[in-house]
Design a protein that fits this description.
Layout lengths: L1 E3 L3 H12 L5 E3 L2 H11 L4 E4 L7 H9 L9 E5 L4 H9 L4 E4 L4 H24 L14
Parallel strand pairs: 1-2, 1-3, 3-4, 4-5
Length: 141
């Protein structure tokens, strides 16, 4: 899992929560860590909705435009999310919108089902690597 959050105390808390259940990595901004996501292909990304440089929703839009990153679930976390941003993120396929401050229970409640779903999708992909594509890339946007 990858946590992209510019606020170090929040980033550290999220990583601590995640490490109770799985391994994780952290980055201070979306622009700098896009290469890491491309290289490591994390099972889940939690991205701050209001980071400088590239917001969580902008990062999500970038991911949905790249074949290699399209299937990675991205949850957006923010203290300030307006309805327009939420709708745009959901339209782009955000896995969840999490409001700060976040408790450990809330974080795990949000993250666990996304990881389970991603695991099931990865298993299906492993069993059907040569299955014909039913939907073009446009269907996933």
């Amino acid at each position: 899992m990858l946590v992209i959050e510019d606020d170090e105390p929040v980033r550290s808390t999220l990583v601590d929560i995640l490490e109770l259940n799985a391994s994780s990595a952290a980055a201070a901004n979306g622009t700098a860590d896009l290469a890491s996501a491309r290289r490591d292909r994390p099972a889940l990304i939690i991205a701050d909705g209001n980071m400088p440089g590239m917001t969580g929703v902008e990062l999500l839009a970038t991911f949905r435009g790249e074949e290699a990153l399209r299937a990675i679930p991205v949850s957006v976390i923010s203290a300030k999310v307006d309805r327009a941003t939420t709708r745009r993120g959901l339209k782009l396929g955000a896995a969840d919108f999490i409001t700060k401050p976040i408790s450990e229970a809330e974080g795990l409640h949000s993250i666990a089902p996304r990881l389970e779903k991603k695991g099931r999708m990865d298993e299906l992909d492993a069993f059907a690597p040569t299955a014909p594509t039913i939907c073009s890339a446009r269907c996933l946007r």
